[in-house]
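dumping this here before i forget
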Amino acid sequence: MALTLYHFNNSVCSQKVRLALAEKGLEWEERFVDLVKLEQYEPDYIQLNPKGVVPTLVHDGQAVIESTLICEYLDDTFPNPSLKPAHPSGCAAMRVWTKAVDEGIHEGVVALSFSAMFRARMKGMTDEQRARQFRNIGDPVRRDRDRAVFEQGVKSSYVFNAIAVYETTFSKLEKVLVDGRDWIMGDQYTLAEINFAPYVARLEYMGLLEIWIENRPKISAWWHRIKARLAYQRGLSDRLTASDIEPMQRFGGAIHPRVAELRQDYLGEFIVAD
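structure:
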């Protein structure tokens, strides 16, 4: 068994896979891909992952891409301890949550992060570097999103949509946890938590999480249980350096007032009852 993970410390998708590896207690070889230096677009890496994103898992010479699929691959290949419900109906219910994260929460955290940290970083680039950054984004939808958020910042409609997604998802999560269960799927910690955790962590590091969970005690308790797990510390929190954390705190603090205002605007238009 040879596992190699190409990843970046502060990539939420990389964190997701590292959490799964840590829960499994698997040993793996590290290949650091520096997103700041645009190493994800280097020809050797593009051969492994044509999308030019992290992470990529290589197992016995075979590349596996897409973080959610990598986590499922790890659970199928190394089934103990299991991170999926035993019954197919439970797996289907779990995948409703992982799909919601992939299709909504991921886009939301990208918009919020980009409007704060990455936008500031791109402003420090030359015009040529910035053009290369956008040109290298192969997906035209991602490229249009990143360009819009770069140009408009927190005023972008993508940021408002992110706030709406977080509001509706956290509302649903509070209801799921209200019956006293510890985890989304009941008594079992699953890929639903692993998929969700890096995105909640990003909000917390940016100082934005309390906007959504201050009055949601079930989510708050659930989040404390996740952070208490040794695998969370090994796969996520212990790997972040001061240079990773400081920009999240600084730039997240700068957009906090506006994000809180936009959430109130959203609640004024669409009441989401817990």
